[in-house]
Amino acid sequence: MRMYDIIKKKRDGYSLTAEEINYFVKNYTNENIPDYQASALLMAIYFNKMDKRETLDLTKAMINSGDTFDLSSINGIKVDKHSTGGVGDSVTLILGPMVAACGVPFVKMSGRGLGHTGGTLDKLESIKGFKVALSNEEFVRNTNDINISICSQTGNITPADKKLYALRDVTATVENLSLIAGSIMSKKLAIESDAIILDVKVGSGAFMKNIDDAIALAEEMVTIGNSYGRKTIAVVTNMDEPLGKAVGNALEVKEAIETLRGQGPEDLFELCLVLGSKLLVLAKKAKDEVEGRALLIDTIDSGRAYEKLIELVEHQNGDISYVKNLDLLPKAKYILEVKSIKEGYVKAIDAEEIGKTALALGAGRETIESQLDLGVGILLNKKVDDKVEKDDILAYIHANDLEKAKEVEEKLLDIFILGDKNIEKKKLIYKEIDHI
C-alpha cells in the first residue's frame, strides 16, 4: 500500500477503505509518513469529504492509535459529557455533582482551555490543592466511592488525533465535519463510559457559528457514538450570549457553587437540568426526563449536589474551605462597574466579544504557554431581554491591571446592544438528537 495512491484516490472523490484509513493513521502516528503527504490527504478530505462509514473508520483508527481507559471495574452505568466549548460554560461543575448525587457514576477526563477562559481543569484549580492528575486506580476508586471523578487525560490517549489536529491547525483543514467529529469522538470513546451526552454550542461565542452546521456536527457525532456501541445523545444549544453571568475561572467556579446552592442563573441551571435528565434516563435511574428533572431538582433542594461537590474536592486533595467560603477563591485587585449610558432593553450581547475582553484581562490563553490569571474576568449584571435604565450597571470587570480594565470598559459599552424589546424570546435549546 502506498500513501501516494491513497492521496490520489481521495483527491479523485472516492471513498477510502478501512484498511487504507488504518494504514494512514498508524503510519503517520509512527512518523513513517511525512507531513507533506498527510497534509495533501487532509486537504483532499477537506474538499471531497468523508461518508459516514469512512468517518467511523477514521475515529476507530484514532482510538486504536493509543491506549483506551477500561472503566468496567466502576460499578453502575457510567456517563460522560462533552461540550464543544463556549463562553461562561461551567456546566460540568454543576451537572457532575447533580448526576452523581442521583447515584449515577459521572466520569470525565477534561482538557486545558485555549482561548477565552480556562478549561474545566483550570477552573477547578481555583480551589487550592485540587488534584487534576489522577492515576487510573485513583480515578476508578474515587468514582466507586462517590460516583464522580473529573481529571486530566491519563496515558497515551489518541496520539493520532494530537498529531493530526496540530497539522490541521496549520494547513487550514480544521473546518471539516468528519475531521472535527472524529477528533472529538475518538477522545470520548477511548474513555470507555456507557453513555455520552454532547452539548454542541452554536452562535457567536461557539466554534460553530451556523445552526445548520452545528446540527450536522451533532448528527455526525451521534452517529459515530451509536455506531461504536455507545449510547450517545446531542443537544444543540445557544451560545450567542454567555451562558450564566460569569466569564472567568474563579468567577465561574463561584457561580457553579452558587448554582449548586440553589442560587444560580436561570439559563445555566436549566441547561444542567436538560442535560442531566437525559443522562439519568440513559443510566436507567429515571423512566423519563420528567422524572429525571424532578430527581435533579431534589439534589439541589436537599443540598446533596452541593455536598457531592465537597466530596469531589476532598477526594481530589482540594481544600474544601474554598467551596464553603467563596471569599477564599482567587480575587482580582480591582472591580469596575460598567454603567449604561442610555436606557432600553438588551437586544444582544456578543458572546465572542465578551470572551475576547476576558482574554484581554488574562482569564484565557492566547498560546499553550500563557499563564492564566484565575481571579479576573467579566460578571454580567444584565442579560438579553433585560430592561436597562440609564446608569444601571451592565457588568462588573474583575481585573488586576487597571489600564486593561479601562480598555475593556469601553469595549463592553459597545458589546451590549440596547434598543426595543426583542419580539421573540431567545432560545436556549435549538435541537435534541438521540439517533440518526
Task: Briefly say what this structure is.
The chain is α/β, with parallel strands linked by helices and 436 residues long.
- Mean model confidence by pLDDT: 93
Order of secondary-structure elements: HHHHEHEHHEHHEHEEHHHHHEEHEEEHEE
Content of β-strand: 15-25%
How far apart are the first and last residues' alpha carbons, in Å? 34 Å
Shape: globular
* CATH level-two architecture of the largest domain: 3-Layer(aba) Sandwich
Number of domains: 3
Descriptive notes:
Residues 345-419 form the Pyrimidine nucleoside phosphorylase C-terminal domain. Keywords: Glycosyltransferase, Transferase. This is Pyrimidine-nucleoside phosphorylase. It catalyses: 2'-deoxyuridine + phosphate = 2-deoxy-alpha-D-ribose 1-phosphate + uracil; uridine + phosphate = alpha-D-ribose 1-phosphate + uracil; thymidine + phosphate = 2-deoxy-alpha-D-ribose 1-phosphate + thymine. With 436 residues, the protein is α/β, with parallel strands linked by helices. It has helices at residues 3-11, 18-29, 35-48, 52-63, 91-101, 120-124, 136-146, 159-170, 177-190, 211-227, 249-260, 266-282, 289-301, 304-315, 321-324, 351-361, 402-415; strands at 79-83, 106-110, 148-152, 195-202, 231-238, 246-247, 334-339, 344-349, 377-380, 387-388, 393-399, 416-419, 429-433. The strands form 4 sheets. A 4-stranded mixed β-sheet has the order 1-4-5-13, with helices on both faces. A 4-stranded antiparallel β-sheet has the order 6-9-11-7. A 3-stranded antiparallel β-sheet has the order 10-8-12. Strand 4, helix 10 and strand 5 (231-238) form a beta-alpha-beta unit.
